[in-house]
Specification:
The complex is a heterodimer. Chain A is mainly alpha-helical. Chain A has 9 helices and no strands. Helix content of chain A is 74%, strand content 0%.
Chain lengths: 193, 196
């Protein structure tokens, strides 16, 4: 049990995908202008990341490994992720229009989020088992959501602030992200796996 | 050689399985438009008055479909709120006083001898119920007017009145029967030509 807890703490804080492993930076910079969209993006990412982490684990264990095709993992994972996202979008759109309105536009965007492929590949690299890969994907997604929401809240404040001309826009965003990343580096050594 | 064949077959099988899944999903989970917006729109009073904060009834219908409160429509009043609550299967809230109070149906009437023909009310009218042109007297088409009172405020000479059409059931009274229109009696009729 404590092992699972460690995986969560490690992915959320210590090895945060965005700020420590530098995965999924494009949505981190791109969708963080408004808190509301950031929350929608976080929800959608959490959903997709967990699901695709599981699916790609299954594809790897039951299809690639028995045939000795481990070298096909990247292309297989991309295929799996794309299908999972597409299928989820269709189902959500039909069954829950409310949820679709929240997540809708973000779902296709997430297909190309490198954190999603990153989680799948890291699961294999770390030789996580089934439950561990669920937790790894979920923890990674929660970590992503946490920093995305924090960062977008900060950017909303910064938009009001008196930023010097050369730093306006993305520049101050990058500086902020860097400082946040430094802060998250402080978690290093909190947990050792 | 066999390694390549296995690899190709595995990927092919995976791709075909996923393709079949997506093809199935595309048919099984097909969505046609968003019918709920039309249904909500048909329940709204179509006054286009903008008291809900939207530029008209249809935008408000889209807002409701997107999760907005259903109690922002004063012209529709309680009846509209209840109809919407039924449709959306939610509890019917009280009318939000912030957007105005429910009033009996009114129409705008222009005091025509005071009208200077400025056309400002024509521009304000969301449903084109005001006739007239520049420097000519305007008038309101009563059957078209929704009573949204958007034309009252722009009028520079304040010649538009809101007249209550339906006085509501408090003011309603039963007209006394007119002589000769007695509904049931066993007496022979005293009025010629009327047989009971």
């Amino acid at each position: 049990m404590s092992e699972y807890l460690l995986i969560l703490v490690s992915t959320i804080l210590v090895n945060n995908f965005v700020l420590v492993q530098f995965l999924g930076l494009c949505p981190f910079m791109g969708v963080s202008n408004k808190l509301e969209t950031a929350m929608g993006m976080s929800l959608a990412t959490t959903f997709v990341l967990t699901l695709s982490s599981v699916c790609s684990y299954l594809a790897f264990t039951y299809l690639l490994q028995p045939f000795g095709l481990e070298y096909l993992q990247t292309i297989t994972f991309i295929l799996v992720i794309a299908v999972v996202v597409q299928f989820t979008e269709m189902v959500v759109r039909k069954t829950s229009p409310m949820l679709y309105r929240v997540l809708g536009i973000f779902l296709p965007l997430i297909t190309t989020n490198c954190a999603v492929l990153g989680v799948a590949l890291l699961n294999i690299k770390k030789q996580n088992d089934f439950v561990e890969s669920i937790l790894y994907g979920f923890g990674g997604a929660v970590g992503f959501s946490l920093v995305l929401v924090l960062f977008s809240a900060m950017r909303e404040r910064i938009a009001m602030a008196d930023v010097p001309n050369p730093f306006q826009g993305s520049a101050i965003g990058m500086v902020t992200a860097g400082l946040m990343s430094l802060a998250f580096m402080g978690f290093t050594g909190l947990v050792n796996i | 050689m066999s390694v390549i064949v296995t690899a190709i077959l595995a990927l092919l099988g995976l791709a075909m399985a996923f393709g079949a899944l997506l093809g199935f999903a595309a048919i099984r989970y097909k969505v046609e438009g968003n019918p709920i917006i039309d249904e909500i729109d048909s329940l709204l009073p179509q006054t286009q008055c903008g008291q809900c904060g939207h530029p008209g009834c249809r935008p408000y219908a889209e807002g409701i479909a997107a999760g907005e409160d259903i109690n922002k429509c004063p012209p529709g009043g309680e009846a509209t709120i209840h109809a919407l609550a039924d449709l959306l299967d939610v509890d019917a809230p009280e009318l939000d006083a912030e957007h105005g109070e429910e009033k009996a149906k009114q129409v705008a009437v222009i005091r025509e001898d005071e009208c200077i023909g400025c056309t400002k009310c024509i521009q304000a009218c969301p449903i084109d119920a005001i006739m007239g042109s520049a420097k000519h007297m305007h008038t309101v088409i009563e059957s078209e007017c929704t009573g949204c009172d958007l034309c009252v405020e722009p009028c520079p000479v304040d010649c538009i009145d809101m007249v209550t059409l339906d006085k509501g059931h408090a003011a309603w009274h039963w007209d006394p029967p007119k002589p000769g229109h007695i509904i049931a009696t066993d007496k022979p009729s005293r009025i010629e030509g009327v047989s009971i």
